[in-house]
Amino acid sequence: MSYYIAPSFLDKLAVHITKNFLNIPGIRVPLILGIHGRKGEGKSFQCELVFEKMGIEVTLISGGELESPDAGDPARLIRLRYRETAELIKVRGKMCVLMINDLDAGAGRFDEGTQYTVNTQLVNATLMNIADNPTDVQLPGSYDSNPLCRVPIIVTGNDFSTLYAPLIRDGRMDKFYWEPNRDDKVGIVGGIFAADGLSQREIEQLVDTFPHQSIDFFSALRSRIYDEQIREFIHKTGFENVSLRVVNSLEGPPAFKKPDFTLSHLIESGKFMVGEQKRVETSHLVDEYNRLNRGKGYQAPSPVAEIPVTKPVVNQSTHLTLETQEQVRQILSQGYKIGIEHVDERRFRTGSWQSCGSFNIDAHSDAISMLESCLAEYSGEYVRLVGVDPQAKRRVVETIIQRPNGK
């Protein structure tokens, strides 16, 4: 695939890495470049593309390696990998960098529930020491007087405010906030779907349909399109035979034809994924199950009594049953917010509801208007009214207000 490198990303990394290999008199160059931003925006992958384009070798450390049952191991690992990378520069005669992915996950403090261990302290202190003395990095218990080659360090993360403040000060770490604009997204998504025959206009329309989604959403969307063929393959092979057919099969790996990558199909699948995201955001069942998340002042909300759906009594001014109008008033009067969901008959059996509107409706007129719109748009589907407690972040009522064909 012809992957896209954002110009601003390429420029920032190229300048930082090159600057660290130059000897500019009177200039103090930060050794560490911290790339931070929202989850799923392709920070690590963009780095890989830049390294490949510039012919740079990379030594990787994961944030998960920055904790250990043995105190001092992660700090020693950083020093060891740094020295190995410095030796690579000397032997290969080319640029090499040390990259730490998800630094904030391994060395950051997110809240009072996050442990601040000896290893966390040592990792922060080690990185600060290396940034201050990049050519004199020693291993515990030994000393080498020969200066090392300077090795630029690239770190990625979501929120660097969780890190130790002296580590991220300007003299040690240069910061770069990665937030792809529309042109960047169109270019990156175009690379993801390069082999699928989508035109530039269709790529733009796909990005504009889901403007608030991160880059990994579109990559997951492309993967999801193959689900139909894989499901058909499983049913054809048989659930009990799939393992033998896929792993160590004498027939070779199964082949799949190119699926339907039309824009309409991609948008339909994307909307289903968005619905699943919203379901996760609004459910927050951990608050119901875990007493530690409730806090001292937590009080279980009194459930809204569900009014059974009876034969519709239509009010000509709103086209909603009187029962539905009354339930909307009851939900809003208790300080809850309104959400609306719909599902067709096939997906109703699996409970795969999709959002029909915002889950932040708190005005009666807005709720009535949105309900009317959804009932009209999805006249042949199930539609249900959802009440959400914004404080406890959980659902307090779910009532079906429309069934297809009067079921």
TrEMBL record:
Natural source organism: Anabaena lutea FACHB-196
Keyword annotations: ATP-binding, Nucleotide-binding
Domain Ribulose bisphosphate carboxylase small subunit, first and last residues per copy: 315-404
Key word Endoplasmic reticulum present: no
Stored InterPro entries: ATPase_AAA_core (IPR003959), P-loop_NTPase (IPR027417), RCA-like (IPR044960), RuBisCO_activase_AAA_helical (IPR048571), RuBisCO_ssu_dom (IPR000894), RuBisCO_ssu_sf (IPR036385)
Family matches, as SMART domains: RuBisCO_small (SM00961)
Name under which the protein is recorded: Ribulose bisphosphate carboxylase small subunit
UniProt keyword Transcription, yes or no: no
Similarity field: Belongs to the RuBisCO activase family.
Annotated Pfam families: AAA (PF00004), RuBisCO_activase_AAA_helical (PF21228), RuBisCO_small (PF00101)
